[in-house]
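Researcher: I'm preparing a figure for a lab meeting and need a structural model of a single chain. I don't have an experimental structure, so a prediction will have to do for now. The sequence is pasted below. Please return the structure as tokens so I can convert it later.
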Amino acid sequence: MTHVEEELASQPECWTRAALQAPEHGAALPARGERVAIVGCGTSYFMAQSAAALREGAGQGETDAFAASEFPRGRHYDRVVALTRSGTTTEVLELLGELKGVTRTTALTADPETPVMEAADDVIVLDYADERSVVQTRFATTALTLLRAHLGLHTDAVVADARAALDAPLPEGLVDCAQFTFLGRGWTVGLAHEAALKMREAAQAWTESYPAMEYRHGPISITTTGTATWMLGEPPEGLADQVRATGGTWIADALDPLAGLLRAQRLAVAVAQARGLDPDLPRHLTRSVILAP
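Model: Understood. Here is the structure written out token by token.
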């Protein structure tokens, strides 16, 4: 079994632990009414998108998400939350350094022996969700679970759905598709982008991702026999029929969308293995991006 497969299988336990941990970190997490930005790179950026949409949708306050390198320096925020599994990513550390003494910052990380511990004002360590695989899976979903629980949006049903996502077989023939498109709405748009990233990283697969309604404005033209369109969350009315009419495969389920992402992670591993690739060691990638000075 690969590292990423072991890490996928541990997600229900990690989510349960994060949800229990959330109340003890309440002072370090955004308070109701604060104007907040959530930042990250790669997978962490997509989790930031989902977390921001959840928080603002819950009426907790204006919340934006940015790639750390694209943070708008001219804007004022009450708090900036940084997601960084490694705690060493150049863009995140540079941003936290710029904000020191200006804006309150909180970092969620997996490694307590890294520079982020001093760079942020508050740090939450999810070391039990750290990973040996370069491909990030459980840290991302565990960090998002912590933020969902802080908002009161996590339930035991989410963990039950995660276990179901691990146990159910992937749809027949899906691994053999030539192209994959992931769709989301609201907070699940970030999950769709992350699902597509996992497919590109682990399996070198032709994969795209869009807000579900935007998919109809052009991207549906690539859908045909031998392609798959996977919806994370509730689909727009009529979209499933439109995809099936192209000859493409439509995938959707009734699971919590975060559990649906876990299924998509499983697909990325399965496609990688079918293509003779090592999903733990994606081409051209490392665990952390550290830019030379």
